[in-house]
Amino acid sequence: MSDAYDIAAFRSLIGPIKCEDNPVLVKQKSRDFYWYSPVLKRELDAVTADIVVSPVSEAEVGAVLKAAHRLRIPVTARGAGTGNYGQAMPLTGGVLLNLIDMNRILTIGTGRVVSEPGALIGDIDKAAAASGQELRMFPSTRGTATIAGFVAGGSGGIGSITWGGLRDFGNVLRLRVMTMEAEPRTLELTGEDLHKAVHAYGTNGVITLVEMPLTARYDWVDVIVGFDSFDAAASYALALGEQDGILKKLVTVVAGPAPHDFFLRHRALIPAGKSVVLTMIAPHALDAFEAFTRPYKAAQILFDSSRAARETLTGLPPNYELSWNHTTLRALRVDPAITYLQVRYPETGALPLIKRIHDRYGAEVTGHLELIRFNGRNVFAGLPMVRFSTEERLQEIIAEHEAMGAMIFNPHRYTLEEGGMKQTDATQLAFKRETDPEGLLNPGKMIAWEDPNFDFSARKNFLFPGLEARALAAEM
C-alpha cells in the first residue's frame, strides 16, 4: 500500500462497507485485459490500487465517493475488467470501486430491461429469455462482462450488424450516474445526455443503474462459410450484410490460415489455409441464407450448428466467442507474439483498400473484419492480428494504414482521445467539471482534463463524436 493517501481514515469513514487491502488481491482486481497490447503491458504492469471497495447499493456507492472526495483519494470504477485498454486500471492508485456485487436485474418489460451496473450480460439475457426477449448487442465476453462495463468501456459487438453501436440513439435508454462531490448527486441521463457517460471510462460519473433495449429472442444458428481467399470472403460478407431480409446477429471475416491455426476446437471443421465468414443466423432465415449463398461457387458451408451432430457440438464454443476481441484472444493463446489494431475502413471503396492492406503485409498482419451498421450503412471495422516485433514497427504499421486511408483507433493507448474512440470537446469537459470538479474519477484517462492547453480544433473523426459535433449537426 502506498503512503500517498490516508487509507486508514478512508476505511474509518466508510464503516462496514466491504473492502479488501491484501496487495495480491488488490493488484489482481486492478487489471483488465491490457496485456492484449505489449505496449500497455509495459506501461501499466505496475499499476495497482491501494484498496478495493465492493458496495452492494447505491447508498454505499455514495458513501464511498463522499469519503474519497473528503480525503482527495482518486476512485476508479470497475465491473468485470474485460476491457482491453486499461480503461478500469487505477493509474494513480487510490480506491478501486468494484461494482460486481451490485448485480440485480430489477425489471424486464416489453422492449427494455433495468439492472444494476454489475449485472452480467449473460445473466440479463437469460432473464430476458423468459419473456422471449434478448439484448440487442453484447461483447464477445458476454459470459463475464457486466452491463455497465460494456456501456462505459465498449462501443458495440455481436448484434452491431443489425443495430449499430452504443453510440446510436436508442441502444442505451437510460443511465443513472453518481457524481464525485462533497455530497454526491445522482443524475438521470436520457436522450442526447447519455453520450456524456457512454464510453467515457467512468471519468465523469459512476454508473449505478442501466436501462437497455431488448429485442425478440432467437435460437441463433452458428454457420461457418469457408473460402480459399480472404478477398472472396470479404466480398461475400459485405453482400450478406446488405441482405436486409436475412436476420443475422454476426458477420465476421477471418483470413486464413488463422481460423485453422487459432480456433483449436474448430480445427477439425476448418481446412488449413481457409478464410472464413462466421455468422449467426435466425432459424427462420436459414433457407434464405442458403439461397443467397448458393450462387457463390467459392463458398463452402463448413459448419451449421442446426445440422451438426451432438458429439460435434460438445465443447464447441459459439461463433461469437471466435469473433471481435475473442479472435485475438484465441490467437494469443497459440502465439503470444500476436497483438492487434482497431481499424475503420471508409464507407465507400472498402474492399479494394482491404485487399491492398492485406496483400501488403502478408503474415505480419492477418485480416479480421467485423461488419457493422454505421450511420445506416453496412461498413467494415477491422481488428487485424499483428505479429508484434517492436513498438517502432507497430507505429509504422499504424502510420501506413492511415496513409492508405484506413482510420486507426489505437488499442495501444489508454486515453479516451487516443484510443478510446471518443472525441472530447468543451461540452464534454464542462460535464466532467460538473460531475467531478476535483478530477478524482479515473484520473489520467482524459487528455483534455489533464492538459489545459488541449486543442479541440483538430476535430478528428472519432467513432463517438463529441457532443458539440452532435449539436452542430442538429442545427444544420
Description:
By secondary structure, this protein is α+β, with helices and mostly antiparallel strands. It is built from 17 helices and 21 strands. The strands form four sheets. Strands 14-11-13-12-18-19-16-21 form an eight-stranded antiparallel beta sheet. Strand 8 and strand 9 (186-189) form a beta hairpin. The longest helix has 14 residues, at 58-71.
Q: Which secondary structure elements does this structure contain, and how are they paired or packed?
A:
Blueprint: H1 7-14, E1 19-20, H2 23-29, H3 38-44, E2 51-53, H4 58-71, E3 75-78, E4 95-98, E5 105-109, E6 112-115, H5 121-129, E7 133-135, H6 147-153, H7 160-163, E8 174-178, E9 186-189, E10 206-216, E11 221-227, H8 230-241, E12 248-254, H9 258-262, E13 275-281, H10 286-293, E14 300-304, H11 310-313, H12 324-334, E15 338-340, E16 343-344, H13 350-361, E17 365-366, E18 368-374, E19 377-382, E20 385-387, H14 391-404, E21 407-408, H15 426-435, H16 447-450, H17 467-475
Parallel strand pairs: 2-4, 3-4
Antiparallel strand pairs: 1-2, 5-6, 6-10, 7-10, 8-9, 8-10, 11-13, 11-14, 12-13, 12-18, 15-20, 16-19, 16-21, 17-20, 18-19
